[in-house]
Design brief:
It is a single chain. The chain has 130 residues and is mainly alpha-helical. The chain has one domain. The chain is built from 4 helices and no strands.
């Protein structure tokens, strides 16, 4: 088998190296595509939670304002119900905003696995082309 390697021309060896590099690059592109899709999905979920949380927080402000109107207008029971609803909406909205912000922090671009494998492949290519 060692004789086969010696019988190969430099052009054939270089052709194999180029072919291997092309396969590596294609694999890296596929990996990057998968990782970017995963990160986009994470960002989408976080954004949806933040939008819902923002909407509920806005409702909380509206209910607090409604409660203030009831309090000032009549000083009777209806304002208490509005305050309780507003506080509940504020708690839910705040929780959703916190969860969404936490998930958004998990999104990392560029994809770390792709960066690592690209660096490894560059090192491999440098070692094999000397």
């Amino acid at each position: 088998m060692a004789i086969d390697v010696l019988d190969r021309s430099i052009a054939a060896v270089l052709k194999d190296i180029v072919g291997n590099l092309q396969q590596i690059i294609r694999a890296e592109v596929r990996l990057a595509t998968v990782e970017v899709r995963e990160e986009i999905a994470k960002a989408r979920r976080a954004a949806i939670l933040m939008i819902i949380g923002g909407f509920l927080a806005t409702l909380a402000i509206a209910f607090l304002l409604l409660a203030a109107v009831y309090l000032l207008a009549t000083l009777v029971q209806p304002w208490l119900a509005a305050v309780l609803v507003a506080l509940g909406a504020a708690a839910i909205g705040g929780a959703l905003l916190a969860i969404g912000a936490k998930q958004l922090k998990l999104v990392s671009l560029p994809p770390p696995r792709t960066v690592t494998t690209v660096q490894e492949n560059i090192q491999w290519a440098k070692a094999h082309t000397r």
